[in-house]
Each structure stands twice: as structure tokens, then as C-alpha cells.
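Sharing in case it's useful to others searching the archive later.

Someone asked me privately for the predicted structure of Transcriptional regulator, so I'm posting the question and my answer publicly. Question first, with the sequence:
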Amino acid sequence: MSATYLPTLKQLQYLIALKDHGHFGRAADACFVTQSTLSAGLRELETLIGVTLVERTRRVVRFTPLGDQIATKARRVLREAEELGDMARAAGRPLSGEMRMSVIPTIAPFMLPRILPRLRADYPELKLFLREEPSGPACEALANGRADCVLLALPYACGDVSVAPLFDDRLFLAFPEGEVAASHGAIQPADIDETRLLLLEDGHCLKDHALAACNRPELRAEATMLGTSLHTVVQMVDNGLGVTMLPKIALDAGILDHTRVAARPLDAEHPSRTLALVWRRASPRERDFQLLAEVLKTAH
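And my answer, the predicted C-alpha cells:
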């Protein structure tokens, strides 16, 4: 087949954007084009391959079964195309060019402010685009090529990835100052009142790490799950509404400053989570990610 009749990368980008956003307007915004340009590009793609990929109605964008298959294949094609540029960058100056990193919410606000100034100073040619999202969406973004690497906490199953462990992050129990039961020393899991435990909602791996560290199945049933940030949970503890689990990096970043909340380390069999940088296995930018991991380790 002549190259003239092959789909263009731009057409495939439009298709993936529509798949991700489910809306022509938002997909066009994501591609920095007008809605009519994106729509015309997709119609050209459908005409080129002779099949309908997307069923269009006034309210709903629905991919056909074949459209779903082609969108999945298109992601792989675009990722391979991006890696051509990655190969060239990897052969040039280290940590230069664009890099998209997803960071989970229980790491981003505590670790990034300490490390980004150094990255800007030492690697001024690196354009680091950051996205804060829970582990599941972050790993999905990595698999689909929307992210180049992910900063997360282990254990977590993130797919076929290379892993650079950074450091262990100890878990602490945070409680209102003056609670006699937790006034001194490390906290035993058996001492935690499950009816007062406040944790982040499902989707935040810190919740799973905290529950696994305690090894008390009844905590999962009794704990109150909150769809919020660690800062908000700390405010609830400060108001006497319960206790929570906090990672050491949050304490080091001053999350308890100006509160009446105290914290003690958890004395458990697995009292820590492991922070790590992960990326797609066999990525041509492996050297860059290893170097980035070495820089991230200095945040410890």
C-alpha cells in the first residue's frame, strides 16, 4: 500500500483523544485544534479505511467494536512513534526534552516541592509535565502512553514495568494531642480504635498500605473512608473526629504544623511503604529514568 493511503499520526491522535474524552469539544481542546478540524480528520480516517469507527449522535459519542480495536492499536502506534523521538533524546543530553510524569496524591505535595528546584537547576533543558492522580489511573496512563513514568508507592501492581525503588516511607498514626492511649512510644496495631480510624477512599493506595500494615481485617469494615486529601483528613483529626495514618514524607513536609495533632510510628510487621519510580519496560529513555530516580532519592 502506498504511504499516501496510510492513516496519519495526527488522525490517530484525534481518534485517541476522542476515545479518552468521549466528547468532540474536549477532544479538540486536548489536541489544540478546533472541533471542526478534529471531526474532519476523523471522517477522513474513516473514509480512508472504509469503516465507521464512531457513531455520532447529538448527545453521545459511541465507538463501534471495530473502532475500539483500532483505537487500542492506535495507542501502540503512537507510543512507538513517540519512542523514535525518545531514542534521539536519549542519545543526546541526559534529562532533556519533554517528560510526562504522573505522581500519586499522597506523594506529590510532600516530595515535589523539595525536588523540583534541584531538577530545574541541574537539568534546565528538562520540561517535566506533572499530573497528580491515584495509582490506578496513573498506571493506566503509563500503559497507554499518556505518561512516561509514574512516581508511586509499592506494593502496587502497575503492569509490565521497570522499577527503581527510592526509599522506604514509614507509616505513623496521627491522633489528637493528649490521647492517653497513644501518648508515648510506637503504636501497636491492636491499640487502634477501628471506629475512629479515618482513611482515604478506595483508589488511594495509602489506604491499602495502612490496612495491610495493621493486619487487622476488621479495620477495613469499620474504618471511615473519605474521598479527600491527607491535609483535609488531618484537619478532621485536629477537630477530634478520629485518628489517621500518615506517611513520614508528609510529616517531614510539615503537614502537622499549626495543628494539635501528634504522631507516633506504627510498630507492625510491615510498617512502611516503598516509594518508587516506574516506567514501561525496555523504554529507550531508561537511562533518563534511572537518573531521575537518583535525583528523587535525595528527597529522603
